Predict the structure.
Amino acid sequence: MDEALQYESADDESMLHRDIIDEEGDILFRSGIREFLVSSKVLALASSYFDTMFRSEFSEGCAMRNSAVPLSIKLSDDDPEASAVLLHTIHFSRKRRYLELQLDTQFNIAVLSDKYDCARALYSDSQHWLMSASAEKYCISSLWKSTAVAYLMYHPVLFAKQISQLVQVLRADDLDGPLPLSSLPDALQ
């Protein structure tokens, strides 16, 4: 379904940190040296991307239905920390509560939520993350990231607030033409 999702063979299990998010999980995601045992049913409810992958005739769905053990899928391009927070949040894990996330992690989660179409499932948690971070003083690059997070996570009020702060911080010279791409986070360029 996606080049970033690859079947993974168990080559060096000793280096992996396994995070059991759902004890009855039927999917084993691998991101970096971390593995996450998760439920395809929960993922399908939270994300149209995963719903299509697991409930259709795509190879992942067929392999999962025909296997007695959890299907192992490598998330090769995904940040392990952001993957952990995203998967714990979607599964309503206790580990997701009261997280104070760094802006870079929030941004990585927002990119993943856009990639996997699951921002709605993260809505209230992402609002908490953004609001707890909004008290910080941001430099321009941080304001770009927080604005992107608000946009990707479908928070229009917070997005408007971040845009307002961004406009106040930008110098008039920065607004006299197209904004330089170097001021945008790499993932948005």
Notes: Confidence is low (pLDDT under 50) at residues 1-11.
